[in-house]
Amino acid sequence: MQSPETGSAPLEAAQRQRGPVTLLLRRRNHREWMLWALAWLLVLALAWHVSWRARDRIVAQDMQRLQGQAQAVEIHLTRHLKAISAALAGAGQLLPPDLAAAPSVPFPLKLLVEAMPGVRGLQITDRDGRVLAASQPELTDRDVSARPYFMTVRASSQPDTLYVSPPFRSVLGNFTTVLSRTLHDTDGRFSGVISASLDVDYFEIVLRALLYAPDARATIAHGDGPIIMSSPLEDARIGFDLNQPGSLFRVHMQSGRMHNLLQGRMVGKSEMRMMALRAVEPAALLLDRPLVVYMSRHTDAVLAPWWAELRTELLLLVLTMAVSAVWLRWHQGRRHLQERTERKAAQAERESARRLEFGLRGADLGLWEWNLADDTITVNAREMEMLGYPPTDEPLSAEFWRALLHSDDQAETERAIAAHLRNEAPSYRLEHRYRHRDGHWIWVLTHAMVMQRTARGKPLRVVGTHLDISERKRSQLELERMNAQLAALSLTDGLTGVANRRQFDQTLALEWARGLRNHQPLALLMLDVDHFKRYNDHLGHPEGDAALRAVAQVLSGCLRTPVEKLMRYGGEEFAVLLIDADAHAGARVAQRCLDAIAQARLPHPDSPLSPWISVSIGVASLVPQPEHVQEQLVMAADAALYRAKEQGRVRYEIATADDTLKRPTGLQPLMP
Ligand SMILES: Nc1nc2c(ncn2[C@@H]2O[C@H](COP(=O)(O)OP(=O)(O)OP(=O)(O)O)[C@@H](O)[C@H]2O)c(=O)[nH]1
Q1: 168-172 — which CB contacts under 8 Å span 24+ positions?
Q2: DSSP code of residue 107
Q3: Tell me: the pLDDT tens digits for 310-363?
Q4: 544 lines ligand 1 (CB under 6 A)
Q5: 223 near 194, Cβ under 8 Å?
Q6: 428 and 569 both lie in a single domain
Q7: Tell me: the pLDDT tens digits for 122-170?
Q8: Among 270, 305, 323, residue at a domain's last position
Q9: 530 lines ligand 1 (CB under 6 A)
Q10: Which of 95, 476, 526, 660 is deepest in the core (most CB within 10 A)?
Q11: Ligand 1 in contact with 74 (CB < 6 A)?
């Protein structure tokens, strides 16, 4: 049973491992959101900058337009003032010098008024302020001496000045503004005033014609501040004094400039307006006070299209922001999922690699992975250890590996790899040698296969194992060597060291079959030591053995092995098989053997023939036929040997045709 502490330990360890990863991911997400916010701040700032510049352009364009309209009003007004001034001056000159004495005005004022657009009435006043004549008869004889406009004119009394009165409520009940010029008698003294009252309705129409937007307003004010007229007409505003602290009118007047473009609130109104203000003070007219024309528009109305566009742009931006935020959140979620899956897979792969490494260690296998793209090899520690190098995690050049390969194994290795890479074999397995770091060769068993190919079958990655089989290989080679030795021994005569009877039988069978196939003759020499029994009896068997070894050595020396090969047939009898040789060729070799033995002068102390060892030889030859058996050749050679013994020994005899035709009892040819 696990204690609760021990039971939760792996879980805590897993959480501890997960902790830093989660923290890192959170930080990355946080960074991305910061970047997202920063990017959007920049976009918003840029959008705001562009939009604000568009707003400024709209304001500037409208200001210019207001300026143009104000200028048009100024031109119009100047012409009227000039015309009225000229009319008043002309009428004044037609008046008699002594107005008081004059019975009446010599021209009808009403007619003059009708000829002057923008003028509602005309009146002539004497020096005391009594109305001598007026275009409206009801005003005649009235006393206007207390009226500010009269008092101002009389006080100043400048002959060429056109006096412009502030608007005031006339006796007729309506607001009016009066333009006046002084009259002088023949001595140049002030004799009265001729005045024209302006037709507000007329000017309102003129101003209205210049308004290009529903919220536009045109105003003409007196230089002292009161509004003379405005369009759209607002009776309540006529006479309203604009010359108040902080008013745009005062700003304009104090600027000393003839025209200004200003923005601000109008006196008595809460709305923001854009204004073009122009002072009307033509040089050709001596006005006692300037007039001020201003055209204005409601700022909000001017900017309404801009605001609408800005709202649309903001909406689009907010929508895009929302979409990008949703996308980022989705992307982070998906990535998180993907990374978690990859982490799990990597962990599983690590564990599997650990298990594999453990398994490979146990199996003493070196593991290698060949990356064909860059021709590098990554190996495990065992692989490096196998070759005497320290372990490394770095990929190594495949060329380094190829250089370690034994030159004798190169061709076969390359052939096997190439065949597998061409997909001709599911894997390859071969044994070869590698040079150990110490310089000695180790035998390695390679087993490898392609682990990854492109879609078109091009190999990308090969994984394989190496097993050090040097020990096994050494044992195998030793075994092979011993087997070969054994095989040789089994075919060698133990006493004389020449081929034994078994080898004779095998060689004869082999060459018989070849002769049969090729229709080539075979010759056989049977050699027997003469009177060897006597040798043994005289000197003993060990000496007899030595003599047999000496005879074998002499005979081997005179034969051209392996074509003429000496074999011990048995006892003191030897045989020589000659390939593609007839009886004459056999006889030549027999004579050579007899000569060699004679020249060797091996002592035989008990031979009745000579003091030296001698041999007798039987020679037989035939072309193997299907109806023959190979023993026929041996029997024929034996028969010839028998005859050689009979005829005195130390000689050779050639088998006769009869000898050759004798067949051993019970032996039948394979193909009779
Ligand atoms: N020392 C020794 N003697 C052997 C060996 N094999 C056979 N002999 C002897 O060789 C002798 C052969 O004698 P025989 O067959 O009578 O023939 P021979 O005395 O040589 O007389 P001919 O052949 O008629 O000249 C025997 O005495 C065998 O014992 C051997 O391996 N060693």
Answers
A1: 168/239, 169/239, 170/197, 171/139, 171/142, 172/136
A2: S
A3: 999 999 999 999 999 999 999 999 999 999 999 899 899 888 878 877 777 777
A4: yes
A5: no
A6: no
A7: 999 988 999 988 888 888 889 999 988 899 999 988 888 999 999 888 7
A8: 323
A9: yes
A10: 526
A11: no
Number of domains in the chain: 3
User: Are residues 444 and 580 part of one domain?
Assistant: no
Dihedral sign for Cα 322, 324, 326, 329, please: negative
Flag whether 53 is in a domain.
no
CA 480: distance to chain centroid? Answer: 59
Per DSSP, 139 falls in state: G
**Number of neighbouring beta carbons within 10 Å of residue 175:** 18
Q: Does residue 572 share a domain with residue 518?
A: yes
459 and 497 part of one domain: no
The dihedral built from the CA positions of residue 584, 589, 593 and 599, taken in this order, carries a sign that is positive
Interface predicted TM-score (ipTM) of this complex, two decimals = 0.98
Measured from the Cα of 534, ligand 1's closest atom is 19
Contact 164, 179 (CB under 8 A): yes
Residue 489 belongs to what H/E stretch? helix 470-490
Would you state the torsion angle of the CA atoms of residues 69, 75, 79, 82, taken in this order, to the nearest 10 degrees? Answer: 130
Same domain, 392 and 464: yes
Assign residue 162 the CATH number of its domain: 3.30.450.20
Q: Which residues pair with 527 in a beta bridge?
A: 574, 617
Q: Does residue 531 line the site of ligand 1, with CB under 6 A?
A: yes
For the CA of 649, the nearest atom of ligand 1: 25
Out of 551, 572, 616, 653, give the residue to mutate to test ligand 1, the one with the largest number of ligand atoms within 8 Å of its CB: 572
Tell me which residue has its CA closest to atom 11 in ligand 1: 533
Atom of ligand 1 nearest to the CA of 540: 1
- Let me know if residue 485 belongs to a domain: no
Query: Is 164 in contact with 288 (CB distance < 8 Å)?
Result: yes
Residue 375 has pLDDT above 70, yes or no: yes
User: What is the extent of the structural domain holding 567?
Assistant: 491-661
CA 596 to CA 380: how far, in whole Å? 68
Distance, CA 621 to ligand 1 centroid (Å)? Answer: 26
Query: What pLDDT shows up at residue 18?
Result: 53
Residue 30 is assigned to a structural domain of this protein? no
3-state helix, strand, coil split of the chain in percent (to 5) is 50, 25, 30
Token pair, residue 243, equals: 């010359």
Provide the pLDDT confidence category of residue 2 given band limits of 50, 70 and 90.
Answer: very low
The answer to whether position 333 is within a domain reads no
What b/e readout covers 597-634, taking b as 16+ CB neighbours within 10 angstroms? bbebebebeebeeeebbbbbbbbbbbebeeebbbebbb
Q: Whose CA is nearest to atom 21 of ligand 1?
A: 531
From the CA of 537, how far away is ligand 1's center (Å)?
9
Quick check: helix, strand or coil at residue 493? coil
Do 269 and 190 share a domain, yes or no?
A: yes
pLDDT at position 320 is 95
The reply to whether 576 and 603 lie within a common domain is yes
Give me ligand 1 centre to Cα 531, in Å.
7
| pLDDT over threshold 90, residue 528 | yes
Burial class (CB in 10 A: 0-12, 13-18, 19+), 330: exposed
Task: Pick the residue whose CA is nearest to atom 16 on ligand 1.
Answer: 533
